[in-house]
Amino acid sequence: MAARSLIFIIFAHIDSFTNLTIFNKLAGIFAFFGLSIFFFISGFLMCSNNRFTTVKDINSFLKNRVAKIYPLYFFSIIIIYAMNKIGLNIPYSNDIAANKLLLLLNILGLQGLISENYNLSVWWFVGVILLYYFLFSIILLYSKSVRSLLIFSFLMGFILLFLRNEFNLIHTNVFNYYFIFIAGILSSTAESLTSLKKITLYYSIFLLTLLLISYAGIDTNTLADISKRDIIFLISAFIFTFFKINFSFNRRFKFSFLVDKLADSSYSIYLFHILILTLFKLLIDLLIPFEAYNRYLPDYIIIFIGIPFTLFSGSFIMIKFNIFYKKLTFKIRSNPLLLRWLDAFNS
After folding, report:
1. CA distance 237 to 245
2. pTM (global) more than 0.85
């Protein structure tokens, strides 16, 4: 599913690099399904791969997330900043240093807390997913059942709405994918058809309550904006959960080596696909005159060669960065002073 999400996201942004009008028309659909799969998987894996029974579990989970997310994220911002300074036109990230405060908040991964649109807008998902991880690690700690999970999620949603409406805080996409992230968590907890029926009933009541509150005149921002696309996705999530219960993962899916590698490198490709496609298009524009042969020739090259090149390059960056990070970690742990600091940090 991570690989599918990645393909959707790339095609959602490909309209910035081609003149083919079909991608302009489909960009919104690609973006919605790509991001919905991303947040659904994130919620699913957060709950299925971790146990939140103590505060120490929360600390351990958040430290692991920070260690995985931030290093490559920082590296991508440095590359964007350097490319911007030399005058390259990078979609969604021009003049990222115009507002120093917003740049700092984005560097820290706090863009989920701010509502103002920012030039580094394509990386908003980092701030949103970090905010989800923080909030739902606390919710899962105190949730003893599906019902309590949904009640706490409902209350947390209205706290976020209060901050949005009264103080103009919280990014709008926090609300757009809130109930989809919850659906991923619930999917991971379904262990039988009986539990799936109960989860579906409680989740339906949860969504219906949001809709009724919205119809009652309370400003729910985009939290209760459930579209036909949302319904289609939630039905697909239900089908996925049904198959998860009835079939073994190992027997159900036979991933090819390439798809498996693509899924493992998805985060790197998310971060760098805009940069890689920008450089690839620059190369194509230099090599092929605009009116040469066919006016759509550069577009076809970007689609059929540029996208595979982007996937390969993103995977390559992930592999090399992991090697570098492991070497750096080893050197740090070899230093007694830094080792004591790390032990104190992890305690």
Report:
1. 12
2. yes
